[in-house]
């Protein structure tokens, strides 16, 4: 059954750059796990149980404020991998991850993964690349929160989401994000009304199209220039 997901799970740059032999080692260690909508894959502070690839569904990476408000850091779609940080530093999970929809995960259990790393040290540079991509997006997030206007943060977020959706397309190609305005507002720690007004003005400027739970970026380059 895993075979039907192999092409999808091999898409990220860090994964596709691996020789076929290493990809096979990882896939041979995978077991499929289904998680129902609303259920948690792991909580922040949990000990790492494995590395995950997403076969079907969609996950929310969140943290909670002291008052219990959920802050959405990102949405993870099929083809993405997650859970690598606590696997490498042996510290607790950085964030809670739960399922927005019924989800099928490719899980490499912790012991299998550690055994693989010892047996195949050539895996390290590839996971280093994945970890560096996390650091880069965290830096982008910090920069955006520290110095940008809310409109600039919104544009940066939309562009980051395009990246995390892994769609590498010619620049003029419109890309649609399946994303509610509420989710976007949570990511920006703002209200849905404020985000709606900013989206409307981006739409009036011809940079995006807004539909129910969908935002189409007409051209990522034009949107980036709209800061
Ligand atoms: N801002 C983020 N964007 C994408 N993925 C994230 C983000 N924050 C955390 N994650 C993933 O969520 C996972 C939670 O468990 P880990 O800390 O092991 O590894 C983490 C990352 O893989």
What does this structure look like?
- The chain has a four-stranded antiparallel beta sheet.
- About 3% of the residues have low confidence.
- It is an alpha+beta fold.
- Helix content is 45%, strand content 23%.
- Helix 6 packs antiparallel against helix 7 and helix 8 packs across helix 9.
- It has ten helices and eleven strands.
- The termini are far apart.
- The structure holds adenosine-3',5'-cyclic-monophosphate (CMP).
- The site of adenosine-3',5'-cyclic-monophosphate (CMP) has 14 residues, from strand 5 and helix 4.
- Adenosine-3',5'-cyclic-monophosphate (CMP) binds next to strand 5 and helix 4.
């Amino acid at each position: 059954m895993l075979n039907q997901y192999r092409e999808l799970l091999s898409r990220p740059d860090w994964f596709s750059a691996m020789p076929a032999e290493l990809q096979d080692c990882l896939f041979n260690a995978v077991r499929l796990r289904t998680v129902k909508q609303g259920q948690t894959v792991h909580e922040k502070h949990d000990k790492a149980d494995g590395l995950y690839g997403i076969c079907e569904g969609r996950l929310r990476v969140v943290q909670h404020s002291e008052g219990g408000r959920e802050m959405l850091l990102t949405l993870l779609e099929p083809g993405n991998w997650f859970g690598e940080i606590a696997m490498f530093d042996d510290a607790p999970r950085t964030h809670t991850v739960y399922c927005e929809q019924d989800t099928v995960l490719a899980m490499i259990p912790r012991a299998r993964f550690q055994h693989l790393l010892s047996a195949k040290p050539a895996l390290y540079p590839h996971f280093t690349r994945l970890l560096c991509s996390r650091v880069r997006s965290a830096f982008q997030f910090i920069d955006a929160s520290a110095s940008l206007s809310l409109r600039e943060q919104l544009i940066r977020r939309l562009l980051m989401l395009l990246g995390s959706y892994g769609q590498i397309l010619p620049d003029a190609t419109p890309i649609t994000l399946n994303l509610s305005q509420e989710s976007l507002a949570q990511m920006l720690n703002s209200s849905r009304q404020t985000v709606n007004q900013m989206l409307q003005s981006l739409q009036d400027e011809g940079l995006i199209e807004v539909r129910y739970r969908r935002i189409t970026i007409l051209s990522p380059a034009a949107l980036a220039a709209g800061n």
